[in-house]
Amino acid sequence: MASTPHVLVIGGGSTGIGIARDLAMRDLDVTLVEQGNLTHGTTGRMHGLLHSGGRYAVSDQASAKECIQENRVLRDIASHCVEMTGGMFVKRPEDTEEYFEKKLEGCRECGIPAEVISGEEARKREPHLAKDIDKAIAVPDGAIDPFRLVVANAASAEQHGARIETHSPVTDLLIEDGEVVGVEVKHKSGPGIRVHGTEGGTEEIRADYVVNASGAWAGQIGEMADVDIEVRPSKGVMTIMNIRQVDTVINRCRPKGDADIVVPHETTAILGTTDEEVEDPEDYPEEQWEVDLMIDTLKELVPMLEEARTIRSFWGVRPLYEPPDVGSEDPTDITRDFFLLDHEERDDLPGMTSIVGGKFTTYRLMAEKISDHVCEQFDIERECRTADEPLPGSEDFSVLRDYMEEFGLRSPIGRRSVERLGSRADEVLKTNEPNPVICECEGVTRAEVQDAIKQSGSDLNAVRIRTRASMGNCQGGMCVHRLASELHDTSVDGDTFDEAIAREAWDELLQERWKGQRHALWGEQLSQAMLNYALHATTQNRDNDPADGEPVDFAAFDAGGDHVGDASGTDVAADGGETDGY
Amino acid sequence: MAIESDVLVIGGGLAGLSSAISAAREGADVRLVTYKQSTLRQASGLIDVLGYTPDGDGPLTDPYEGIDALPEDHPYRIVGVDTVRDAMSMFDEVVDTYQGGHTDTNALLPTYGGTVKPTARYPDGASAGLASDDRDLLLVGFEAMPDFDAPHVAAHLRAAGVPFDVRGVTIQFPGELMDDAKVTRYAKLLENNGPVTVRGRERGARDALVERINPELEDEPRVGLPAVLGDDDAAGVRAALEAELGVDVFEVPATPPSMPGVRLEDRLFEALDEAGGNFESGNPVVSFDGQDRVETVYVDKQDARIPFSADQYVLATGGLVGKGVESDRERVYEPIFDCYVPHPEDRYDWFDEAVFGEHPFAGFGVDPDPELRPLDAGGSPEFQNLRAAGSVLGGYDFAAEKSGSGVSIATGYHAGRIAAQEAQ
Ligand SMILES: Cc1cc2nc3c(=O)[nH]c(=O)nc-3n(C[C@H](O)[C@H](O)[C@H](O)COP(=O)(O)OP(=O)(O)OC[C@H]3O[C@@H](n4cnc5c(N)ncnc54)[C@H](O)[C@@H]3O)c2cc1C
Ligand SMILES: Cc1cc2nc3c(=O)[nH]c(=O)nc-3n(C[C@H](O)[C@H](O)[C@H](O)COP(=O)(O)OP(=O)(O)OC[C@H]3O[C@@H](n4cnc5c(N)ncnc54)[C@H](O)[C@@H]3O)c2cc1C
After folding, report:
1. How far apart are the C-alpha atoms of A321 and B264, rounded to whole Å?
2. Is residue B162 part of a domain?
3. pLDDT tens readout for residues B372-382
4. Pocket, ligand 1, Cβ cutoff 6 A
5. pTM, whole model, 2 decimals?
6. ipTM of the assembly?
7. Could you list the residue range(s) of the whole structural domain that residue B241 is in?
8. What is the C-alpha separation between B85 and B108, in angstroms, rounded?
9. CA nearest neighbour of A230 among A359, A398, A377, A354
10. Does A520 touch chain B (CB under 8 A)?
11. Which fold has domain A83-141+232-321?
């Protein structure tokens, strides 16, 4: 090979982007094309569990070992995408002792740190666990943010010279003399689309090698070259709760089943999942029963889930693959392993390899293996460096753990603050005072609000835009009065914002928030609007604030009955306030 | 076989509980089925009867006088002012942890938003905070609890012209509580005088709190705190704090999740039990049989439908917040019986442009006859034996009027009583 080989990767999910980074770091020319945005496919619609491997410790030990290995790597290279929540496999009375023992043994055989804890200890760690949980195995599961991880990989790939084209579906494979020599893509145009060179229209991209990492769509790419790739897409539901009921990943300790895991994520907890084969990865029914099943089954582990509100549910499609001769009836029997299909060996079609199956947690390892395979085609021997070199952003975020400990921030909130603040995080969050959350929906803390007030003065709307406070689910229902309190008594450049200023800014923000909600007033949001109205008008009497209106004749109102023996105001402090009536 | 009773109440909020208790007191065999925790979890725990007229005049000193001036289709006018009084008497008998029954006159209580609001009944725990009481006041907030910023509330109360001096201070709650600890965590710690670590030493949380409040007190004879003073034994916590501080202590009515609201709900369930009523919660009523009369309703229990039959039914499923009234893009509806809910056709007519404008949505609910039977679009009762109570009723804006709990108690009482009489 005279010049540097050019590799074209199809698919901007975790697999494709991992490959692009790896090959680019090995100094190959790389172009990645993705039909939608990055994470458009399954990667953007998954559960966000950084597997410890515990889930596969009985059924699939090879996968389990890969998981624990990659779990450690990702904590290292992608610390800003991972929250090490820890996880548990909990055993209910009706779950067998035998399986529990097998799980424990399996973890130990795979090198997964596993500790048996009593039901009592489990509830100490997770107070909302069901009272009748017998015991649990604690493992190093975690939560991982797929969006941030993919974006960080893309940034790294670009830094190493890769070209990344989003909103550019492959419409055909270019085949010459029985060999794949490139692809035809159609660049879409429109707002928010990152275009590299070409805007709109069709482009033929020639390449020395094509990697098909299109996940559940792999079969469709195969069809373009008349090869069969037997991907069996299988859908799964995930239901997002409005709060984070648990801070660790909770798995049910029994053989495979639906609705057996809860993953804490940022300020929410996500319940999952189901496993149902579907025909078309883009078009499948999203059914109510799936959501109900999540709650009804998982409440056996965390009873309060039944009472909790779900914000929304979403579905993803697993790109499961099985070799043609296996023929599993049930999609849950299909292996979670990944397969590298070299179409030259398999179908006599040189120039392309497909990668199908696998897991998000092991994306890097999959990418390493396929990159090795690609390099072999060109007799290139270069070391894979992706396990050692941190992803962009990860270094900057290494201070995060300290912040969280130092400031007692709940971890996802800490991360969100730091993410919003970037390099200013240190300066803003370094406070010796307690730093409670002011806006729960968006995870905005007092220190951030105070910082924004310093920048924008008494305009709470400007504070909102800087921090996102009051922009979440409840649209300020819970936090607008808190923001006003934050403003009250704060000084900026010698001006102190007194109560009257705080009151005016408060009313302004209430009105501004109302404006935006009016276009969504039906169903859940109308219910939320009524709740907010009741909170503000009924509980706070904000609509009849005596400070704004006519003076009130206080003496005309009830000054207390006989239960309040001290209402006269005399003889009070001396007797220890021993009122009757208790 | 259906589970049978004389009266079946659907919904376990203030209205459902009031109607079940009143029906039981009439001697009926009563059963209450409810789905989830009620709106009381969000409400302040105050029992408003009427604070402002629909035109916004107020605060009213006498809520009963105000009732006469309400429009005819207001729930209070439908049941009549005497019924409202009787209902409040029942409440006073049943809930011995509330005050205000000694007078018709409204009380004014400070809110966590720094205003004062008119209300008719208030928990014992809030009574030392009355704004018409002219004793000076110290408000104490906690650093990590942004819902109640004591200096801000104090400044606001001063601007509202309260007849006493009020100061606010912020202290740190003793111990190393997480910044976002739940209110129940505070409540339990105070109730158990649970251990907290203060400067390396283990202390009881309540004792340590007293030590922190003491130096802040000047000569105010009363101290207001956020509503976290105990869970099951609020009176005990308050008494202990009062004994140690030597002043009256009160809670400022709460933000959600509301401890006073939850305490009231617990108390009412106890009272229903004492009155001989049955209840069960956790599963919704989803459907019914019947044409002119409701024959049976069905509770959805993990895919099984359990039938419940009664002679008389009370619908007390709440309003938009409680989900007794629901909506989609096209319409507003009552989800169990599909009772008629009047509303403008265009959903852009459901609200006012101003945040505190006259919002039609606040009045969404069923339209009842004098016996509180929901009427259909033609003005006839939807069913002979179904009555509605509480915020599932339309025709009033409880948030603006400050009438939420009063309407729930009065209509609940009325519906329960008639149902019991009809069943016998
Ligand atoms: C419900 C569910 C929960 C899961 N939970 C977890 C979990 O908790 N932890 C875990 O480790 N794994 C989990 N997984 C598995 C994991 O999500 C997937 O294995 C992984 O995301 C697959 O990534 P991918 O890049 O292979 O596929 P995808 O993310 O689907 O990427 C393929 C990309 O190719 C693009 N593409 C398709 N056709 C074309 C075309 N013609 N031209 C250009 N681009 C094209 C698609 O738009 C897509 O973006 C879960 C999967 C599901 C379904
Ligand atoms: C934020 C807020 C603050 C408030 N503050 C005050 C205040 O300070 N003072 C005051 O007087 N009032 C206040 N109110 C108003 C007062 O709380 C309500 O008006 C009152 O509690 C309504 O009671 P309810 O029983 O009609 O409905 P809810 O309390 O809503 O109860 C309805 C019950 O029915 C159940 N249910 C619903 N559907 C079904 C079904 N299909 N099957 C079985 N059960 C079902 C629900 O789960 C719920 O338990 C406030 C309200 C809100 C929202």
Report:
1. 57
2. yes
3. 999 999 999 99
4. A 10-16, 33-36, 40-43, 46-49, 51, 169-170, 213-217, 221, 236, 238, 273, 316-319, 358-361
5. 0.63
6. 0.97
7. 112-252
8. 20
9. A354
10. no
11. D-Amino Acid Oxidase; Chain A, domain 2 (3.30.9)
